[in-house]
Write a structure and sequence with these properties.
The protein is an alpha/beta fold. The chain contains eight helices and six strands; from the N terminus they run E-H-H-E-H-E-H-E-H-H-E-E-H-H. Helix 2 (53-73) runs parallel beside helix 3. The chain binds 3-methylbut-3-enyl trihydrogen diphosphate (IPE) (2 copies) and magnesium ion.
Length: 276
């Protein structure tokens, strides 16, 4: 019996009904391993149609389903979706309740299909101020899918990049006080292991929809060298084609990580090799 939350009918078709997603290819050379998506613009999508904001969020879940399918098809290893920020608690209580309800529905309706598609679900963000039922649901989703390997779907829920960094600093300070580490041991590698994303490579590409050009506290540590693609489309209209276009833009970028471009890099390596 599907649970209904709040004022809205939350019945939605599950993600992969009647179809099996075939990964078209494993990751192509030069394609990103990890893509982060800031799913923005649901409210404006709804407002343009004279609909309540909730309708934008509801259609946004459909776009999320398509995005997960496309990520499998494109052979990504990790897809991180920003679904609720710690600052989003500042929204009206009804909207917050709607967003919580949609997360619950998404997990209830889609977990089976995600599991069948060999998707591992991981949730990042604070857990302590979440209601017990949501916490339990998130933990159950992670536990059930922990051995899956096709794609890791990282749901950034109740997430804040700065809060994540502060929590890591707190934990490291505690380790130092208890004598397990020395302050001098703290470097980038050790710090990363105290973030929610420990063991996950940094996002190669971050896509934000809705035309806004900011990170809004998303992956403040991990985004240090991510390529950023901002799309004018609102999240409910994001689809496989928009995703594919963002990947094409990514593949045309020259990632330098503070070094020099490809041609200069090869020249520099040749010159260094000639000296040795
Ligand atoms: C993104 O859409 C969903 C969340 C932030 C939870 P918004 O709700 O931010 O939509 P806009 O930006 O108001 O259009
Ligand atoms: C970022 O969108 C958070 C999510 C997409 C979950 P917001 O709509 O909250 O960001 P701002 O307020 O426009 O910066
Ligand atoms: Mg927004």
């Amino acid at each position: 019996m599907p649970e209904t939350a709040g004022r809205h009918d939350l019945t939605m078709p599950p993600m992969l009904t009647g179809e099996t997603v075939q990964p078209a290819q494993r990751r192509l050379p030069g394609a990103p391993a990890h893509v982060g998506v800031i799913m923005d613009g649901n409210g404006r999508w709804a407002a343009r149609r004279g609909l309540p904001r909730f309708e934008g969020h509801r259609h946004g879940v459909e776009a999320l389903r398509q995005t997960v399918r496309a990520a499998i098809e494109f052979g990504l290893d990790y897809l991180t979706v920003y679904s609720f920020s710690q600052e989003n608690w500042n929204r009206p209580v009804d909207e917050v309740a709607d967003l919580m309800g949609l997360l619950k529905r998404f997990i209830h309706n889609d977990l089976n299909e995600l599991d069948k598609a060999d998707v591992k679900v991981k949730v990042i963000g604070a857990r302590d101020n979440l209601k017990a039922d949501i916490r339990a649901l998130l933990e159950a989703a992670e536990e059930r899918t922990k051995d899956n390997t096709m794609l890791t779907l990282i749901v950034a829920f109740n997430y804040g990049g700065r809060q994540e960094i502060a929590a890591a600093a707190r934990a490291l300070a505690q380790e130092a006080v208890s004598g397990h580490i020395k302050p001098a041991d703290i470097d980038e590698a050790l710090f990363s292991r105290y973030l929610d994303t420990a063991g996950i490579p940094d996002p190669d590409l971050i896509i934000r929809t809705s035309g806004e050009q900011r990170l809004s506290n998303f992956m403040m540590w991990q985004a240090a060298y991510s390529e950023l693609v901002f799309l004018p489309v609102h999240w409910p209209d994001f689809d496989r084609q928009a995703f594919s276009a963002a990947l094409a833009e990514y593949s045309a970028r020259d990632r330098r990580f503070g070094g020099v471009t490809g041609q200069y890099r090869s020249d520099a390596l040749l010159a260094r090799a000639a000296k040795t």
